[in-house]
Amino acid sequence: MPKLVIDEREIEVPEGTKVIEAAEQLGIMIPRFCYHPALGSVGACRVCAVKFLEGPFKGVQMSCMIDAKDDMVVSTTDEEAVEFRKYVIEWLMLHHPHDCPVCDEGGHCLLQDMTVSGGHGVRRYLGLKRTYRDQYLGPLVQHEMNRCIHCYRCTRFYQEFAGYFDLGVMQIANHTYFGRFKDGILESPFTGNLSDICPTGVYTDKPSRFFGRRWDYQRSPSLCINCSLGCHITASARYREVVRQEARYSEAVNGYFICDRGRHGFHYAKSETRPGKALVDGREVTTEEGIRAAREKLAELMSRIESDGVACLGSARSSLENQAMLKQLCQKMGWQDPSYFVDESLAKKVKTAVTRLEPELTVSLRDLEGSDAIIVVGADPINEAPMLALAMRQAQRKGGKIVVLDPRPISLPCDYTHLPVKLDEINLYLGALIKAAVDPEAITDAEKDVARFYREAPMLEIFVDSLQKKASSLAQELRASQRVVIVCGTQVVRETTVVLAGDCVSLLRAAKKQAGLFYLLPQANAFGASLLTNKEFSFLNTLEGMENGSIKGLILVENDPFYSFHHRQRLDLAIEKLDLLIVLDYLESPAVRKAHVFLPTSTLYETGGIYINQEGRAQAATKTYLGGISIAQISGGNHPPRIYGSEIPGGEARAAFQFLDQIGDGGSDEDETASRQNPLRWLSANLPALAKIPPFGELTEAGMLINSSDEGTGQFSLDWKEEKDKGDMTGDLLEVILTDLTFGTEELSSFSPPLRKLERKPCLFMQVNDAAKMGLSSEDRVRIKLDEGDVEVDVRLEENMAPGVVILPRHRLLEWQKVKRLPKFVRFEEIEKVSD
Amino acid sequence: MLSQQERDEIEAEFPHYEKKRGVSVEAMKIIQRHRGWVSTQAIEEISEFLEMTPDELDGVATFYNLIFRKPVGKHVILVCDSVSCWIMGYEEVRSHLLSRLGIQFGQTTGDGRFTLLSVPCLGACDQAPAMMVNDKLYGNLDPAKIDEILEAHA
Known about the structure:
The structure holds 2 protein chains of 2 kinds. By secondary structure, chain A is α/β, with parallel strands linked by helices. Chain A folds into 5 domains: 3-92, Ubiquitin-like (UB roll), CATH 3.10.20.740; 124-268, no CATH class; 278-341 and 527-601 and 655-705, Rossmann fold (3-Layer(aba) Sandwich); 348-521, Dimethylsulfoxide Reductase, domain 2, CATH 3.40.228; 733-833, Barwin-like endoglucanases, CATH 2.40.40.20. Helix content of chain A is 29%, strand content 18%. In chain A, a hairpin with a 4-residue loop joins strand 3 and strand 4. Helices cover 45% and strands 12% of the residues of chain B. In chain B, a hairpin with a 2-residue loop joins strand 3 (131-133) and strand 4 (136-138).
């Protein structure tokens, strides 16, 4: 390891460390524009010049381009280097418009900082400046090319790092232009990062323009809850509303970047439709009256029914505190345990995932970037958890091999091999690929059950002819790989697939590979929800209870089954039969409107909370602002009301755990901080996996990895084929797979006005050959017959998907909740063309 | 649409390169030979043929000053403004061309006959001052010789 001296201080760094990085480790921030730790060095901007006094290089050199070496003596403050940097800044600023007062980057602009600190305080150039025409880049990013200093960070991120090629460099020299071939919406779902990494105001966050300077904002470390990855975010609020979110660096999870769904998915918290007042039978009441009504109505109900006549449904989007408090309440009141998942099969799959994640198998999102083979099973990264796709791209750029086993038309921003197979057949193909990837010699001393699993795994020959060649060349490459990660989704796959993914990792490890396991879960805190889920109580049981009259009261906590349950009519009827429906939520929903008592809960921005990501990492989001109705909404664009008072206007919302606490103990009005310790203490006392959970506020940046694995559960199950019961249906069938899109299906982000502009029109994806059988062509409109009615939708033909399936997104604009039972199959004739 | 001949000529270049996109520059030169310049539509057509995005191809196109992304005149004049030509009388050549054609660098004459462009070097220092008209090099220029050359290009 080279040892060098920078500004008279010695440091030892690993071989290959650049001088600029070595200096940073000493706390010396050498100026930089083009250098970015995630993007590497290109030596384009020349502003990181330092003077090398001793060693293999001499004189003024770029610190981002030179590896630290033994005997180097470097000065960042040498007069010659300082003067050099000053001139560099001056010529970078030559054409800059000096429009800081009207620029949205002003206040958090690297160029401002470097210009001032570099000593270029007075402009000497008086000539004409070069100007550019700006482009429309879509609803998320504002373009202002005149401010550009040509550091190339944008295209290096957009093309090299993220793998999209509709934004790039045009022209040459002084005319160099960063933009698109033509005006238009950027295609990548990672565009917001352009605003983060641009060192000046060429790309700024469009939805938050003209709202404030960074120093005006209440900024706090927060988490993204728009999928299960748990990316780190900095939330900014002003005037009682969240205004902007930026990526926050995380060593283990998201690195420097986030996706656009996460960045702009916060608008639900300030939605005009957000219910902010307690309601009793549809009438607005004070919060205290609401709590009292809930208690009284519950008491009245419980006086005349059995205690298991009250059921509770928690949620996988709630914080751990809320989830735990709900369970605590149920136990205190003698009700049956709550369920947290509307979809029973999903609950089972998540449970499997949570129990299979042994610490030595678990890989973080950043670990994934270092793997040399990734096998994706039943997951659609770009649509389900976009940042996963970005991590996979980094693995692939380093030479990693990516294989996807999924029936859907998967598209990834990297090189990958897609084997489009049906859900029923995924297990077979996964087993065959893994078997072929294992060197038989390597497992001669393996334990008996591993050996049997290996022996009974299917051979590669099971691949259909069209995939045979692909599969065998893949197997070769997999055999050569050392760090294999199996990424397994939980949304669309069969229950056995989730088990098998874990078994396959165990086999690979027995074969002495460093195999890892990476599950995708359905929502931000599905892990926590699953820890609290008692296997015996599922929402389907609850529903049956409601139907047969044994359940008379239902409490929904931050869960809207009308959004996610596949059979709306059944749900409607069951809810009608209830004597008491209590809803706690921060989203507007049919459930809120039907509630006898509604209590408005706070979002994570107003309360913070602990969320456990799909890897089992418990992480904390801190409070961003105190809550209340935004000034923009309360004043309707005019001066805010001239009323004096100590209350926060519209600040009735409380944390769900507070409400639940109060419902349970008679409304002793503890404050939030005190109330929060309650569920956390309960968790550490009652859940062994969470025994060591620290008090809120003491979770570190890296979070805490929760180990809830249960060795020996369902291992080596040998379920090679899980054929689903198709009832009395025979012949050629199509499975209707309900699925997610990047924008338009996820519940929270579907409230975001800028993201709504990016939603694709809902459509039905069909395999070209299936469509040909039915005489359908692209852009045809079809009516697909579901159990409780039809759905009319455009057809989109895809080549790279499995035959025998159709893909229907759970789009917010589509009434897809007409399915009696999942998985759902239709006959060819149940999809018919709509003549126009 | 790319004509059959254009496609054939581009395809003939494929064996010389590892990837299709490697043919970008050659492909645009082929199109320019046939059409005089490379339009926005041509960028879309070529990029589709080479399996790259139009953004990527236009990045290449706009990098090179001899790929014309705007229509040019019937004859393109490239005048060397490099140091040898400058020593040998470039300024007289330039002012004579500007006044005879009545246009500035980067412009095309009203009758569409000539487009005037500057280039940094033609590799013809031994014949400085020099210029090119279309594919032909002319050296040892003086006003009379320039007039003669312009006359010859109807």
